[in-house]
Amino acid sequence: MSRISPSKYWKIINPVEVLRTKKVLQHNPTLAPVSANNKDSVISLHTYQTNSCKVLKMLRPEDITISLFTPAHNYWLNIDNLNKSSIELIGHNIGLHPLIVEDILSKNQRPKTEEIDNLFTCVMHMLYFNDETSSIESEQVSFVLGKNFLITFQDECNRDLFNPIREKLQIERTRLRQNGSDYLLYALIDVIVDHYFVVLDKLAGQIEKLEEEIMRSAEHSYSMNHINDMRKELMYFKRHVAPVRELLGSIIRSDSTMIDNRHMNYFKDIQDHIIQANDLCETYRDIIANIRDLYLSQMNLKMNEVMKFLAIVTTLLAPATVIGGVFGMNFDRIPTLHSQNGFWLATGIMFVVPLFMLLYFRHKRWF
């Protein structure tokens, strides 16, 4: 038998939970919230070429200048924990446009690409599925691509999808080492998009459990809460993933000198994946709509059964009500009123008439 954990009862009865929709609806691009992370930024630098790869960790913001990126190597500068003062200092030292710095520090930016001052920028979101809360969480990541360097900005360092890329950079003669920073950009975006399917698999598991729960019993009032929560999560997923298709289209159509034409096929492959992710999301939304219709149909069917039962009970009691009303009238002369067996006669009629009605209903197959 399906049970709901005690920790979720508050979620069901708390009226404030209705406001969870703001996670999906409240988004004003003119008032983008700025990251309020007060932790020190964690900075690491990968310097690599075909035959070597060096990693420098725990760099200071003042150490990052444009002169750090010499033409002889390729560079990947990763910055975690977006401390406002540190990012502004790095942006000033490297020569980032103020609009780029603003996009990096602003949360919930719509996925997009821009090219400003010979720097190709890209903003998108890494999505994670929280198994404890059964909800999707996002982390914004920003890319700044130069001629031989790539800078990535992440909101936090507790979760990271880029560790497989770091491991590949340590292997000699991999494609990451043999190609430029634009190929590294492809590899990082590919990891993010591939993880979208992991989140979709988690959502699919939740949808299957929800469908089984409703098929077993639709009488639980919190089933509709689960349906609405799942619908909101799919809307949240769609809002962050759908614009990525346009983002990749902008990269493919771009004539930027920072992206080699030889690598366009790789970005087209990611675009195919993101189209598939969007299609799956739409399919899951249709399934949720069907589950909601199934739930409402079962609830209506159960309500009809209850109403049928009450109608039958009311109908069977109607003769007794009529007979009792007739013999309860204030007249002196009523047949069998003063008879010794009048009470038993009236009571017998009250039982016999509903019995014949019950047999008639059964014969008509009304229940």
CATH superfamily annotation = CorA soluble domain-like
Domain count: the total is: 1
Radius of gyration: 34 Å
Strand portion: 5-15%
Number of helices: 10
- The dominant shape is rod-shaped
Report the order of strands and helices: HHEEEHHEEEEHHHHHH
| Total count of strands | 7
CATH architecture: 2-Layer Sandwich
Strand order of the largest sheet: 2-1-3-7-6-5-4
The quaternary state of the protein chains shown equals single chain
Major β-sheet profile: 7 strands, mixed
Our measurement of the CA-to-CA distance between the termini, rounded to an integer number of angstroms, reads 29 Å
CATH class annotation: Alpha Beta
Q: pLDDT average, as an integer?
A: 84
The secondary-structure class comes to alpha+beta
Low-pLDDT runs of 5+ residues are 1-19
**If you consult CATH, what is the topology?**
Beta Polymerase, domain 2
Describe the structure.
It is a single chain. This protein is of the alpha+beta class. The protein has a single domain, classed as 2-Layer Sandwich (Beta Polymerase, domain 2). It is built from ten helices and seven strands. The chain has a seven-stranded mixed β-sheet, sandwiched between helices. Helix 7 (181-216) runs parallel beside helix 9 (264-327), helix 8 (222-253) runs antiparallel to helix 9 and helix 9 packs antiparallel against helix 10 (342-363). The chain is rod-shaped, with a radius of gyration of 34 Å. It starts with 8 loop residues before the first helix and ends with a helix. The relative contact order is 0.09. Residues 1-19 have low confidence and may be disordered.
